[in-house]
């Protein structure tokens, strides 16, 4: 409040009643003389001539609300005095200017927030400059206790950490206005308080947001709010199944289960399956631990029909997803139907043939399936004959006049037997023997693709061979039959034994004959003596003529004895000197000569073999038993095995390794001529040709 007084003087010479009034604009208030009379109401004063008056009034400064009235703005006031004599008014104008007032207001309200474990959120807090001058604002955070008091050891900061919680102030620049010069009066700015919760399933924090104006830092305001960890637990169950088709007994079908953690924290889930007593269930996994938002696929649920459950029975498996503490989240059902298992057992097949050639086969069948089934039975015989079926009681069949060849039996319960019979008469008027084939087909009613087939074959006789048409065999015919049977049975063995004996005897005779001929041939061969060598000649002279066992022509028995060395020296001195050794021919010449010698030697050997073979044929005596031998082509010669000849190239190599004579080249000539020309080779003739006269 401001108290003001202004003086006024009555310059007239008479008394005057003066009316005073104060006018202004805005939310101001003014009272006269500290009274309750507002200055907008005229104040009347009587003034004598020359008198001085002091009108007094109080101006009440309005409260700064929402930044108004503004600081630095002049507010105009006008004081007017009006004469009652002539109505003339005198005005006096003045202005008032307010000082800057600073303050802050937090427009946001208390809040209680929830967030996921380990998650973060941002909570906006709006602050407003309620001062009447532009000014920047400040915002800080601090942890509070349950009573709203700051925790010991903490002070307002831009951020803090407490018990795993992290809190901070973001976007503080918005409290300084667009240009950074502060917020205008009554202008607002919003900061973000970011809160991050610890990774735990429960907990909370009490946060205080403290703000103040930069012009009045001690005049702070605080807003508090609570943040709690909210644990949401949930799961999504999804299934894909192939159990829509019928499942046979003891067979299985599968369902793929997928589980998703829809909660906001890692959690454990359990899959529980409940089903019919005859429906076994197998889970690949029953307990799952999933992180937030994680999906687990390929959990396989296997459903098995346990045992021979009745066909077309319906079963249900309920799959429930639970939390590990037992809370049920979701459940779904898998429906399936037991398929028809078709199986029949031929317990007995009894075939018989009576004296009238009636072949009868009895079939006993048992339903091994899991539901009522039936059979469609038909038969066929591949010969012209009379045949038919004898159906079981309750069967349906077509013809009632003749034997049915088809019938159908329905609704045979599982485990129940029934018997029917098939028969045929063997034909008696056939021209040849044969076999009658009776084929019975049994087809399931529930599963037509399952067919059981039984074939019965029976031999029949032609009309001429039937017992009543065949005369009884005589004793001789029976003997022939027995003999033919024995012969057919043992003929192969007997022939084998005979062939072996004859072959052994012939082989023995051949070896004996060959041995005899070899002995005769060897007896005709002359005794071959070893050829003498020069050393043997000298030995005879050393030993003397008497030691040799031979008669030496011209030798004197009583001749004086001479020492061998002396005789050798005398013989050498009287003998002619050895001629100079000729130059050795070249290797090419030796090879050519060797080829020529081999050629001529081969021809001579062939001539000698021919002569020897001719002698054997002319002079040999034939054996008397030769007349039994088959005639054969006469061979004009006999081959005498000789050592394998060494090729010329190998002989050439051998000649380089050591000194050789002409014999080493490969020419082999007997030292003496055999007396028998049939067994000896032709004597080697001296060739007068100079090209063959080789002195090696």
Describe this protein's structure.
This protein is α+β, with helices and mostly antiparallel strands. It has five domains: 2-97, Immunoglobulin-like (Sandwich); 104-229, Sandwich (Immunoglobulin-like), CATH 2.60.40.10; 235-337, Sandwich (Immunoglobulin-like), CATH 2.60.40; 344-467, Immunoglobulin-like (Sandwich); 587-615 and 636-692, no CATH class. It is built from six helices and 35 strands. The strands form nine sheets. A five-stranded antiparallel sheet has the order 10-12-16-15-14, with no helix packed on it. The longest helix is centred in the C-terminal third of the chain and has 49 residues, at 475-523. The radius of gyration is 73 Å and the shape is elongated. The termini are far apart. The model is unreliable at 548-556, 635-640 and 648-696 (pLDDT under 50).
Strand content: 35-45%
Query: Radius of gyration, Cα only, in angstroms?
Result: 73 Å
Helix content bin: 10-25%
For the record, give the distance between the C-alpha atoms at the N and C termini, rounded to a whole number: 168 Å
CATH C-level class of the largest domain is Mainly Beta
Spatially, the strands of the biggest sheet line up as 10-12-16-15-14
The major pleated sheet works out as: 5 strands, antiparallel
Shape, please? elongated
**What is the residue-averaged pLDDT?**
82
The CATH topology of the largest domain turns out to be Immunoglobulin-like
User: Could you name the CATH homologous superfamily of the largest domain?
Assistant: Immunoglobulins
Count of β-strands? 35
Low-confidence stretches: 548-556, 635-640, 648-696
Identify the CATH architecture of the largest domain. Answer: Sandwich
| Class by alpha and beta content | alpha+beta
Number of helices: 6
